Amino acid sequence: MKGTFMFLVILIVILPLGVTSAELFELPDVTRPSMFIVDHNRVYILEEATVYIYSLKDFKLIKKFGRAGEGPKEFKYDPNDGRPLSMSFFKGQLIVNSTNKMSFFDKDGNYIKENKVTVDRLLFPVNGKFLGIGPTAGEKNRQYIGFTIYKNNYKSANVIFLSDFEMNNPTKLILPITSFTYNPVYKNRIYINSNSDDFKIIVFDDNGKREYVIEKDYPKVKIPGNFRESALEFFRTNPRFKNAFEYIKKVFQIRENFPPIRDIQVKSDRIYVLTFKREGDLWECLKLDLKGNEKGKTFVALDEYEHFTFYPILYSVYNGKVYSLVEDQDEEVWKVHVTEFK
Known about the structure:
This protein is mainly β. It has one domain. The protein contains 2 helices and 27 strands. It is globular.
């Protein structure tokens, strides 16, 4: 299906408790999305080195821009390195992170400027500084996913959190991994879901000082018995990993339970937490206030869980609704699902 015509489908279904609506909007232009943001009454989709902007009102294409390259309106992108570009909003500007470069656009995709970057990190502005997420040296010079505050042209670095996930020839590969949000900054605070075993979110100030911790008693979600076999099959057949399959088998381990938190987003003074709890084909999403008190719950449509990926989950919260981008494999088209909280 090609062209820019947007065909609206309204789906009437029997929904699980807590879901108040489910609408579907087809996006036939999209084939391989890597990031999905809803903001400023628009939908932003990043696909390789191209950004699509759609109207949230009618899902018509407003603009398409970007390509791989070195120029000021181009993004440094290598499809073979296994890492997507990233997008985020800061003070109404769309920021696209590519290798050693931050590109700034207005909400309509008009180019503003670019910043050269000397560190290989996903970067997010935080009160005149930058939070960087990326490979960070830990014990015995091993590389872990770390969170670092940068200032003074990236020369002054303060590591505020080091995860337990090893990168670059790990001594152990424990699945499922703890994934981290692609935009952890909200109102000059940093929110990190920090633990693979417990429901815990650490909140830091803009200097990296720990302010408080959100902890909740959350029921364990047990990993199914076929998880190990399906994960090994994923590594054996995936083009990115199959050449390293024999090494992966040696360091491969499985947790007893899924991590309590699959992903978080912080919007409009609320923390939205995806978990691994299921209602049929849907995934649980909790709505908390900034201190961790539950304010609602719903279940949203998401693509199936991939055993190992650094790509973000294709969902976005805007004006209290959860928007998710899901591939309809039967119709071979990507659809935006819209879900409200009860």
